[in-house]
Design a protein that fits this description.
This protein is mainly β and about 260 residues long. The protein has 2 domains: about 90 residues, Immunoglobulins (Immunoglobulin-like, Sandwich); about 110 residues, no CATH class. Helices cover about 15% and strands about 45% of the residues. The protein has 2 helices and 23 strands. Strands 3, 5, 6, 9, 10 and 11 form a 6-stranded mixed beta sheet that branches. The longest helix is centred in the first third of the chain and has 26 residues.
């Protein structure tokens, strides 16, 4: 080591590196240290905490997902509550259906995370829910229940061509109709709710839509036609979600070679 020091005195090693490079390296190191300190402060600050769940409702360090929501009738409601501050020992979900007493369900904690979750298996009516923890609770959230249009039953009336000599025939609540080509078909379709618009669309040709006659105050649609081509029933609901009409191709009739059947 002594020889190295003596050699350094006779041969200045520091002079081989320009001073501007040394100053630049020190400046970069200082910036990195400042960035590291800022990250530590942000992590330790409770005001900067963000829930890992997108959307929902956040207040006083509590995030509830999904908040206010619309669900299709029969769907499951999943509620998740996350806490940014002190984690309570007990968290409950309080649901109040329309014209019914409140129901309480204990939310389950997710391992060591400050997250509690629970669900309502089937939501059949509008309800209000909130999350209670300790002696505090969140605001009330609303769940609106809706239904897509659905074909409940179809009654068919058949008027056969004159050359067949057959009398008109009515088939109630049928899923299948067989007739000779050229038969006049009248379908009375009972839906689960009133709709704004319903139509038959020839399969493979979306331009060949046959509008159905719908009633504004009843869930009925009728069709009178004398064609036998593959068709599909589509209908448009009478309510809107976020301003967009809801279409419903869930119930369909298909015809092929004089045979019509409902899916």
């Amino acid at each position: 080591m002594r020889e190295a020091l003596i050699h350094c005195l006779s041969h200045p090693w520091a002079a081989t590196i320009p001073q501007w490079r040394v100053a630049a390296a020190r400046f970069v190191n200082l910036l990195a240290l400042l960035a590291f300190v800022c990250v530590l402060v942000a992590l330790r600050s409770p005001g900067k905490h963000k829930s890992v769940f997108a959307g929902g409702w956040t207040a006083d360090g509590v995030t509830v997902t999904p908040g206010d929501i619309s669900l299709e009738r029969g769907e499951r409601l999943v509620v998740v509550a996350s806490f940014a501050g002190t984690v309570p020992a007990k968290v409950e979900l309080v649901t109040t259906p329309a014209s019914a007493p409140p129901n309480r369900t204990a939310l389950v904690k997710s391992l060591s995370d400050p997250v509690f979750g629970g669900s309502v298996s089937e939501v059949m009516t509008d309800l209000v829910y909130r999350v209670e923890y300790g002696d505090r609770h969140t605001r009330d959230f609303t769940v609106k229940v809706f239904e897509f249009p659905r074909l409940e039953r179809a009654d068919a009336g058949l008027t056969f061509p004159a050359y067949t000599g057959l009398a008109p025939k009515r088939i109630d609540n049928t899923h299948r109709v067989s007739a000779v080509e050229g038969t006049r078909l009248e379908l009375l379709m009972q839906l689960n709710k009133p709709v704004v618009r319903a139509q038959f669309i020839v399969k493979g040709d979306a331009t060949s839509a046959v509008p159905l006659v719908v009633s504004s105050n009843s869930a009925v649609a009728t069709l009178t036609a004398s064609f036998w081509k593959p068709t599909a029933l589509t209908c448009c609901n009478s309510w809107t979600l976020k301003g967009a009409p809801i279409s419903c191709p869930r119930s369909s009739w298909r015809t092929c070679c004089g045979i019509a059947s409902r899916n």
